[in-house]
Amino acid sequence: AAAGGVLLAGGGLLVALRGHTWSALSARYRAPAARPVDAWEAIDRGDDPT
User: Fold this and answer.
1) What is the mean pLDDT of residues 31-50?
2) CA atoms within 13 A of residue 30's CA, in its CB half-sphere
3) Cα–Cα distance measured from residue 15 to residue 4, given in angstroms and rounded to the nearest whole number
4) What are phi and psi of 2, to 5 degrees?
């Protein structure tokens, strides 16, 4: 159990020190920035905004 705790702590330290250099999701995976008003206007027109 102690060895497992040491491994987990070492892994956490490694992530804390090097995690900021890891690649992240690109912009294509982010949700489009739609205004909430656009969704209401779509409903008013009879369109399904989902």
Assistant:
1) 77
2) 7
3) 16
4) -65, -40
